[in-house]
Design brief:
214 residues; 6-stranded antiparallel beta sheet; two-stranded antiparallel sheet; alpha+beta; 26% helix; 5 helices; single chain
């Protein structure tokens, strides 16, 4: 068989293409398994990094804080020295207020009701006298207006000692009774039911009274 030069050249080229095509087909064939992956380990020397922050600043201690922020003490103004008391040529004998009326006249007027006006709820001799009613009526004649109630009457006066008491002062047992002191150890009062206005010694069984000056 005669093979021309052209035919021989074509056969040689075909011989080269077929193996290459076969290799390519195998490499990209569906379902072909990929070559196994390889893991590479890298060893890196440890590094230390410093980051500036507020936490790294030296903190203020409590002692320093107290020194820096303790408020100053308040300024105390010097007090003025008290003025010397003026000397008095005469000393005051008693701290009790003076009577603005005649105590003896009060006692004399209250005495006119002794044995005459009965004890009761009233505050008028035409009716009856309670203990506070007698006191209210008698002092009213001397321009002194008093409420009803023994405690209410005593609250309008000043407590004095027994040594300071004089005729016309009040004799008061808190919450119970009130009368008029005669200045000589006795009282004038409206004592109790079934009795009249009396002039007698203070009730020993009721304890010591409180003396009141109006």
């Amino acid at each position: 068989m005669t093979v021309t030069r052209k035919t021989a050249a074509g056969c040689a080229i075909a011989a080269l293409i077929v193996p290459v095509a076969a290799t390519a087909a195998y490499a990209f064939a569906p379902g072909a398994s990929a070559s196994p992956a390889h893991t590479v380990s890298l060893v890196v020397a440890p590094q230390t990094y410093t980051v500036a922050s507020a936490a790294q600043e030296p903190g203020t201690t409590r002692a320093v804080f107290d020194v820096l922020y303790t408020p100053p003490a308040p300024v105390v103004e010097p007090s003025a020295a008290p003025a010397p008391a003026a000397s008095s040529p005469t000393s005051v004998a008693s701290a009790a207020p003076a009577q603005e009326f005649s105590g003896d006249a009060v006692v004399a007027y209250a005495q006119t009701f002794v044995g005459v006006v009965p004890y009761g709820w009233g505050a008028d001799p035409s009716d009856s006298f309670g203990c506070d009613g007698l006191v209210q009526y008698v002092y009213g004649r001397f321009g002194i207006s008093l409420p009803r109630g023994a405690d209410n009457q005593a609250a309008l006066g000043t407590v004095i000692s027994a040594d300071e008491a004089r005729a016309g002062d009040l004799v008061w047992w808190p919450g119970r009774h009130i009368g008029i002191w005669d200045g000589a150890g006795g009282i004038i009062d409206a004592p109790d039911w079934g009795r009249y206005v009396e002039h007698h010694a203070p009730w020993a069984s009721s304890g010591p009274p409180i003396f009141i000056r109006l």
